[in-house]
Amino acid sequence: MFYRPADGHGLPHNPFNAIVTPRPIGWISTRGSDGTENLAPYSFFNAVAYTPPQVMFASTGAKPDRDGTKDSVSNIRETGVFCVNVVSFEMRDAMNTTSGNWEKTADEFDLAGLDRAECQSIACSRVAAAPAALECKMTQIVPLQGDANFLILGEVTGVHMRDDCVKDGIFDVLAFNPLARMGYRDYSVVREKFSLTRPGE
């Protein structure tokens, strides 16, 4: 099968997200200039550079109460900071709760029953029990093709790792089993790993 996205795919559901999988989930926490807090998952997310460490996520779609975007991007526009929380398998239901299209005044930490902790290098909350969290200073917000599509880039200014996830000096993903986004309503979980040595190493 071949299709041109501009012409449509002719399938019951868009296969694009199912093709680009699995995708890590950036559970983005932000605080607005008025002090309200937001927590939402984004699967258009990844790390993009080592030195300095940088991450990106993309927001698609808009809410009528957020001037052409969503709560996360609106808050980042106001404050210039955000935190990326890593999602473990055990936090899947809480993450899903925070994906709802809630009012901008809703506090997803409370809705999902999550404890929060204050970040150290930025003015923002993080998910206290997350296996890891990356405190970020926004460097760019890039408008993308299409309506309400924005790419957010940030430099990591602080890193939290849960103590039980650091074993023998290595951040061990099998200690918490990262959740990954597939297509449609599907997810996956990392339960095994293997290593490969690059040529010349």
Automatic annotation (TrEMBL):
Record InterPro entries: Flavin_Rdtase-like_dom, Split_barrel_FMN-bd
**One Pfam family this sequence matches:** Flavin_Reduct
Q: Which GO terms describe its molecular function?
A: FMN binding; oxidoreductase activity, acting on the CH-NH group of donors, NAD or NADP as acceptor
Top-level taxonomic group: Bacteria
Span of domain Flavin reductase like: 18-173
Q: Which SMART domains match?
A: Flavin_Reduct
Protein name in the entry:
NADH-FMN oxidoreductase RutF, flavin reductase (DIM6/NTAB) family
Q: Which organism is it from?
A: Pontivivens marinum
Q: What is the lineage of its organism?
A: Bacteria, Pseudomonadati, Pseudomonadota, Alphaproteobacteria, Rhodobacterales
